[in-house]
Amino acid sequence: MNPLNECFESISRRSFLRASAILTFAALPDFAFGAEVKNGRLLVILLRGGMDGLFAMPAVGDPGLQGLRKDLMPDGLLKLDGLFALHPALQHVHELYTGGQALLVHGVSYPYTGRSHFEGQDIMESGVLQAYSSPTGWLGRALDASSYTAVAMSLPVPLILRGKTPTESRYPTWISSPPQSVYQQLGALWANDASLAPVGAQLVATSGSLQMDTSLRMGDEADLPALAQQAAMRLRQDNGPRVAVLDHVGFDTHAKQPGQHSDKLRNVDQAIRAFHQGVGEDVWKDTLVVTVTEFGRTVAENGSFGTDHGWGTCIFVLGGALKKAGIVSDWPGLKPTNLFEGRDLKATLDARALYGGIVSATLGIDPEVARRDVIQFDATNAFDGYL
Question: CA 97 to CA 99: how far, in whole Å?
Fold first, then answer.
C-alpha cells in the first residue's frame, strides 16, 4: 500500500495535536473552490534540492522537535499559531500571513518516497508519479486547459511548463540581440522542411519580442529577486502571460544547513517581496504565489549540521487571491513511531490536490478538469475556504 494512503486511512484512528488554525484532513467527493478569478496570475517558485519544512516552518509546539534538532533551531522564530513558527528569514511571508494573505501547509508532499533528486524533481514537475513517463508538466497541462500563456524565468523552459501552449523564456545574457533579418532568413531557409518550418515561422512571428536582457548578471544571491521583479513586469501587463516560474537551486543541505538553508529561504522571501511590489496591489489582489519542492528532509539532524533526503515538508501559498490566511495540517507528530520509516516526517496531505486547486482558482479551470487532465489527485475539502 502507498504510504500516503496509509496515512490517509489512519486519520480516523489517530488523535491530533490541536492548535487554533489546524484543520483535520478528510477525503470527500468534491472540491469546493471559489469562483473563477478572471484576472488571475500565478507565480510558481521551484525549490530544488528538497526544502526542509521543519527548518522553514518548525513545529515548535511538538515536544519531540528540540531533541531532534539541537543544532538546527534558529533564534528569533516568527510566531504563528502555537504549534508552528516561521524561520526568521521569511519576514515577508510572515507579513503576508498576519495580513490575511498566506496559506501555510505542513506535512505535505507528493506520494513519492524514493528520495532521489532525479526521480523526485521529474515527478514534482510532471505531476505524474511514474518518473520519466510524461513529456509534459502539470502547469503546462493547466495552460493547455485554459486560454493563458506563461513565462519561464529560466533557461531552458522547465518540464513543469511544457505542454502544447508555447511558453516564453526570459533569462539574462551578455549576448546582444541578433537583427530581425536573421530570423527572417532562418524562416525562409527552413520553409521547405516539414519539421523546421513551424519553428522558423514562430521565430519570425515572435522576433520582435525576442530581446536579450543584458541588464542582469547571474551567479549571486541577488539573482532570484531580480528575476522575480522581471516576472512581475511581464505578469502585470494586461495582454501578457498569466503564469511565471522561478527556478531556484541549493536546498540540498547535507552539511552546514543553518547558514546555507537560511540564505536560500531569505533569497526566496526577498523574491516574493520583489514580485509583490513589482506587480502592484491591483494585480496582486488576483495573484497567487506557490512554492514547489521534490521532498522534505530527515526529521533528525545528521552529524554534519545538516539533514538528508526525506519526505514530508511544507508549502507556502501567498497572495491577494486567497480568501483568508491560515495553516492547514494534519500533523502526524514527531515521535519515532509516527515517522515514516523511522526517519521522515509523514506526508498526510497530497501536494497534487493543493496544486490542482491553485490552478483552478487562478486560471479558471473547472476542478474536475484539473483533476482529470492537469494533475490527478483524490478529491478533498482540506483547502476549502482558502482558495
Answer: 5
